[in-house]
Amino acid sequence: MTGGHTDADISRRVRRLETLLEDRGIVAGAALDETLDAFLSGASPANGARVVARAWTDADFRTRLLADGTSAVAELGLSAGGVQPQRLRVVENTPDTHNVVVCTLCSCYPVRLLGPSPSWYKSEAYRSRVVREPRAVLEEFGVRLPDATRITVWDSTSETRYMVLPMRPSGTSHLDEPALARLVPRNALIGTAVL
Amino acid sequence: MARINDVGGLQGFGPIDTADDTEPFHADWEARVFALNSALIAGKVYNLDEFRDAIESMAPADYLAASYYERWFFAIRTLLERKGVIEAGELDV
Question: Which Gene3D superfamilies does the record match to this protein (chain B) (predicted)?
Fold first, then answer.
C-alpha cells in the first residue's frame, strides 16, 4: 500500500524535516545513523533462538523463563527491546496447544529477540484475521495443525511483549545449544511456523 | 469509541502477504523516519504514548490509505506541529 504520496514526495519531506530538526539542534544526523546501526545490529532472531535453545537444554532456565520472561532473558544479557522498557511473557507450545502472537492495535513486538518485524506482522490482514480465524491464517503460512490442537492467540500491548517457545523437534538429543538455536527461525518465535 | 487501528476481528482485509517477510525498510526514507522517531522520543520531544495516540487518532480513511511508515511520518509531523517545533506546511517546499 503506498497511500496518497509518491515515494519521491515523501522522501523529500522526510529529508526536509531532518534538515530542519538538525538546524534547530533537536536531532543530530550522526546520532540518527548510530540509532539505525544499533537497531539493525542489536535486534536479531538469533537472540530469541538462543533463549529457546537454552530453555530446551536447561530445565531450570525453562521454568524461570515461563514464570518471568523479562528476568530470564536478562540472565543472557537480553531484553524485549524497544524505546521504553517492556515486560516479556514467553508462552510454551505443547503437543496439545499452539501459541501465536499478534498486535491487533499496531505492531508491538519483542524486536531485540525477533529482529525487525516482518511487514505482514504489521498488516491489517494479519492483525484483523489471526484473532478471528487463526487456523486459516496459519494455513496461509503453510502450517497445518491437527484439529485437536488448541490454538491460543496472544495480543500484545504497549506494556507486554510475547514470544513463543516452540517444541523441541524429535531426533535432536545429540545437538548442543548453538546447533539447536540454528533450528529456530523467527516465525517459530511468533507462532507462524512450527519445527 | 473504537479507533480505526483497532482492527482485531474485522473482516474484509483479504489474504496475508506472507512473502513480504525480510526487509525491515522498503525505502531509505522509512529508515530515516524510524530513526527520527527514536531520536525524538529519546530527546523527550514527545513520548511513545503520544506517538501511538497520534497514529491512532488518524482519520480512518487516511489511516487505511497510508502505509506503515507513512503513518509514522504523519504522527511525527502532527506532534512536532502541536508542540511548535515546526509549523504547518513547513515541509512542503
Answer: Nitrile hydratase, beta subunit (1.10.472.20)
CB A109 within 8 A of CB B9: no
**Residues A69 and A158 grouped into a single domain:** yes
Is B40 within 8 Å of A7 when comparing Cβ atoms?
A: no
Q: Is residue A1 part of a domain?
A: no
Residue B31 domain-assigned? no
Query: Over its length of 93 residues, how does chain B's per-residue pLDDT go in tens digits?
Result: 678 888 888 888 889 999 988 888 999 999 999 999 999 998 999 999 999 999 999 999 999 999 999 999 999 999 999 999 999 888 886
**Rg of chain A in Å (alpha carbons):** 19
Q: Is A119 a catalytic residue?
A: no
One domain for residues A31 and A15: yes
Distances (CA, A) of A194 to A112, A152, A174: 21, 14, 20
3-state secondary structure of A169: coil
Q: In chain B, which residue's Cα lies nearest the Cα of A132?
A: B9
pTM of the model: 0.89
ipTM of the complex: 0.91
Task: Indicate yes or no: CB of B38 within 8 angstroms of CB of A39.
Answer: yes
